[in-house]
Design brief:
The protein is α+β, with helices and mostly antiparallel strands and about 900 residues long. The chain is built from 20 helices and 31 strands.
């Protein structure tokens, strides 16, 4: 019983711990997914969004714990330069464009609806354990407690998202490459199966051939045995024919004897008839001579007996003749039968001989076919190796130009499989090729039945450009008709580059020849200049020893070279007034450039002059220094003017700095602003020392007034206008009670004051100076804001739960100052603010700044996105973010205008 209780307790404890274990495993996976979604954008490139300030990651129906973890991981963005915004979607219909959209495994049934929804978006879709690999972009796979993912580059490219190679470091597997490999492997297996089937067919034919050979051998033996029988029968027939010949001879002799005996019988019959006639005559005589008859009766009876015996003998001979005739007929019939039998035997023998010859021919043909099949098999093996290993692209086309087959080399060279060719390039060489004459070349190949060679500039599937040499060859059947065409493409990009390099070098040689010719002309001119110019020209050797000076040397210094050499020496380096001459010459030699320096000296007449020297090292064909040329020019007047300008500039700069101090003193101090606005920031960067942008703040009762203004121009002119603007604002608001404050009215009065003070009436030639301004009045009790703007808008970002609302209040399209299409008054807008709202006033300096990779303007839309992306951060972090982004965007470009951005949190 105790043992059972222990088991029950253990089961209960296990049941209680199991949810915690499952929850812990799920939490671990959620952390891995959040970390992966944070790392993915580093290795993705969105083609339609060059400069991304905020990465948007959308989550469809994700769990609250996962969304909380994802926000925690992405809270700092990427070094606070590129921010990450996590957006939760409750349904497919609510999905908007994001950079990444994560779909949990529970939403896989909605995959097709999601794909249709984001069609046309520049969005990378991240799914979880979705089974259809060909449809996914990025698919997360959980293997135990470890998370991996699959990538389909083809679908990502369709969404205009490119993947960097470094994504494999995160554990990604490229499915599209695997599919391409599998397709190629499958194609190769199919080819191998075809070869195996062909080999099996050959083997079966060889077996059939062996059977036929055995049958032929058997038939030969039968024929040989039948031949022996025929020989025996022929011998018997010959014997029988010989016997038959004898019988025929005997029959002929018997017939002749029979004919003779027949003639004898006829003669005897005639003789008997004669005797009968004689008997008749004798009977008549006997009648007459009875006496004679009785005497001769015995003779008659004897004669009758003889006649009877002769008749019997004749009958016997007749029977013998009939018998001999029957025997002769039998022999003739037998002879005819034997002849017929002999004819059929001979015909059968001849048919068997023909059959043997036909079988021999078939055997020979089968042997030839087997040999040919063996050769074809070997050729197929070689072609299979060539088709799989060669880097040359091979394509088989039908007579319409449609693709029938491609080798692996084609896929390696261009990146297309046969399916991709049919799907993306219409499956036809005439439509797919970018050669302008491809159709005429194709038709010419078929018409002339001869190969055609041409070159073309092609683009691979991964957008690489290369040169290809194509050989289009016809395949003819036994009747000489074209049935197929073979196209072989070779990559000749390096050859073309070499040809271009040769052409470029030839052009360089021609240019150098032209340059030399022009230099000869220049040398003639320089020779004239060197002799007539007032500048001193000195040529020295490698060690600085002066070899030649021009007449300008004497005109500049007032002394001849011989006099100079006696007093100072003849070395250019040692006589130089530049203390850094050695270091500068070394730098000029190292970088193969001229050096410039200015020094002062005295002429022979003791006159102070400033000399600007340009010293140039001259190199020989091997790159070694051979000479130095120094050209001295009198720049005394320029130096004196520069000194005067420097003195004047110092005075002006001091004045401007003083004006800066005055402007800074007039601007609202930080202590005053902190009392008015507990949470705010001001990004203020003048282009010059004095700014044409200014900010202004005041308080009347419970009303807080704050403005951001951009005056015409910058520097000193803009500074004067800013002083004028702040003075007028103080005067106008000072006359009004808190209840009378109206933002639109204040700007209307400000415009009247500026036009009056600058005497602007609209006449041609008058000053059109003025300012753009955004003015807000905030009631501290009700949080109702009044806003009026002259070209400068108000931008408010409101955070409702997890959604962000953007309020963009447009300004009136007219400035403070003279304007030909001005309205009578400025519009006064009101807005009920909520706690946590972020309000932004700004001039056009920030969005108009040039920079980025392409040197373009930042633009107002991108600037507003940056404000919205950082709106939920502390205001001092927002200021740092805006300053860092501005510096990165501007890069080495100059600042083109004053910068002013004011942020306030309610």
């Amino acid at each position: 019983m105790k043992f059972q209780k222990i088991i029950h307790v253990l089961v209960i404890l296990l049941a209680l711990q199991l949810p915690q274990v499952v929850s812990y495993a799920q939490t671990s996976l959620d952390k891995q997914k959040a970390k992966l979604l944070y790392d993915l954008p580093i290795h993705l490139r969105w083609e339609n969004d060059d400069d991304i300030d905020v990465i948007k990651i959308g989550v469809l129906n994700g769990s609250q714990t996962f969304i909380k973890e994802l926000k925690r991981v992405t809270s700092g963005g990427y070094d606070n330069i590129i921010l990450i915004d996590v957006i939760s979607f409750n349904s497919v219909a609510s999905i908007t464009e994001t950079h990444i959209l994560y779909v949990p495994k529970t939403q896989n049934s909605q995959f097709n609806n999601i794909k249709r929804k984001i069609l046309g978006f520049n969005t990378a879709l991240v799914t979880e354990e979705y089974p259809a690999k060909k449809s996914i972009m990025i698919n997360l796979m959980a293997k135990g407690s470890k998370l991996t993912f699959q990538i389909n580059n083809d679908n990502l490219r369709i969404a205009n998202v490119n993947v960097t190679p470094g994504i494999s470091n995160l554990g990604g597997i490229n499915i599209s490459t695997k599919i391409l490999f599998d397709e190629s492997e499958k194609s190769l297996k199919q080819e191998k199966q075809k070869v195996r089937r062909l080999q099996a067919s050959i083997e079966s034919k060889q077996k059939e051939l062996a059977k036929k050979e055995k049958e032929l051998e058997r038939q030969k033996e039968v024929l040989f045995s039948q031949g022996d029988q025929i020989v025996e029968q022929r011998g018997k027939i010959e014997v029988q024919l010989a016997e038959l010949g004898k019988l025929v001879g005997e029959a002929k002799i018997a017939k002749q004897e029979l004919q003779k005996k027949t003639e004898i019988l006829h003669e005897k019959e005639r003789a008997i008839r004669k005797q009968e006639n004689k008997i008749g005559e004798q009977i008549a005589v006997l009648d007459k001579l009875e006496s004679d008859i009785s005497g001769r009766q015995e003779q008659i009876e004897i004669q009758n007996k003889e006649i009877k015996s002769q008749n019997i003998e004749i009958k016997t001979q007749m029977l013998r003749i009939k018998f001999q005739q029957n025997v002769l007929l039998i022999f003739i019939t037998l002879l005819v039968v034997i002849l017929i039998l002999a004819f059929f035997l001979l015909r059968g023998y001849r048919l068997k001989q023909r059959k043997n010859k036909l079988l021999a021919q078939q055997k020979e043909e089968i042997s030839q076919q087997a040999a040919e099949l063996e050769v074809i098999n070997k050729e197929l093996e070689k072609l299979s190796i060539v088709a799989s290993e060669t880097s040359t692209a091979v394509i088989i086309l039908d007579t319409q130009g449609n693709f029938d087959w491609i080798n692996i080399g084609f896929t390696k060279m261009y990146g297309y499989t046969l399916k991709l060719l049919n799907d993306e390039l219409n499956g036809n060489i005439i439509k797919a090729s970018n050669h302008p004459d491809i159709e005429s070349l194709f038709n010419s190949c078929i018409k002339d039945k001869a190969p055609v060679i041409y070159e073309s500039y092609v683009t691979t599937r991964d957008k690489q450009e290369r040169w290809a040499q194509s050989t289009l060859s016809p395949i003819l059947n036994s009747e000489g008709e074209v049935t197929k065409l073979v196209l072989i493409d070779s990559d000749i990009t390096k050859i073309k580059e070499a040809e271009n390099e040769i052409l470029r070098q030839n052009q360089m040689i021609l240019d150098q020849a032209t340059l030399l010719e022009s230099k000869n002309v220049e040398l003639e001119k320089l020779s004239l200049v060197a002799s007539k110019t007032d500048n001193s020209v000195v040529i020295a050797d490698l060690n600085g020893e002066i070899e030649w000076v021009n007449d300008g040397f004497t005109r500049l210094l007032g002394t001849t070279f011989d006099e100079f050499k006696k007093e100072y020496g003849s070395n250019l380096f040692l006589t130089s007034l530049n203390p850094d001459i050695v270091d500068q010459i070394a730098e000029g030699i190292a970088f193969k450039k001229s050096i410039h320096y200015t020094s002062k000296t005295y002429t022979k007449a003791n006159r102070l002059i400033w000399i600007q020297t340009t010293m140039t090292p001259i190199f020989d064909n091997e790159g070694n220094v051979s000479k130095f040329i120094a050209i001295d020019a009198d720049v005394t007047k320029i130096k004196l003017a520069e000194e005067e300008i420097a003195r004047q500039n110092e005075k002006i700069t001091d004045s401007i700095h003083y004006a800066k101090k005055i402007q800074t003193a007039v601007l609202p101090p930080n202590d005053f602003l902190k009392k008015l606005l507990p949470e705010y920031f001001i990004m203020f960067r003048p282009k010059d020392i004095v700014s044409g942008d200014f900010y202004w703040a005041s308080k009347k009762g419970d009303q807080i007034l704050i403005a951001a203004a951009d005056c015409t121009g910058h520097g000193v002119p803009g500074g004067f206008m800013s002083m004028l603007g702040m003075t007028f604002l103080n005067e106008i608001t000072g006359k009004l009670s808190p209840e009378e404050l109206n933002a639109g009215h204040i700007l209307t009065e400000l415009r009247n004051s500026v036009k009056s003070s600058l005497r602007q009436t609209g006449k041609e030639g008058e000053a059109k100076d003025g300012m753009d301004i955004a003015l807000c009045i905030i009631d501290q009790k009700t949080n109702i804001m009044q806003f009026a703007g002259a070209n400068n808008p108000l931008f408010v970002v409101r955070n409702n739960d997890q959604e962000q609302e953007i309020i963009d209040i447009k300004a009136d399209d007219m400035p403070i100052g003279i304007f030909y299409h001005e309205k009578d008054s400025f519009t006064n807008h009101t807005l009920q603010l909520q706690e946590g709202d972020s309000c932004y006033l700004f001039s056009d300096g920030y969005p108009d700044q040039f920079g980025g990779k392409k040197g373009r303007k930042l633009m107002l839309s991108r600037f507003k996105k940056m404000l919205a992306a950082s709106a939920n951060r502390p205001l001092h972090v927002q200021k740092e973010f805006l300053e860092n982004k501005f510096d990165i965007w501007k890069g080495n470009n100059r600042q083109i205008d004053d910068i002013l951005v004011i942020g306030i949190r309610i």
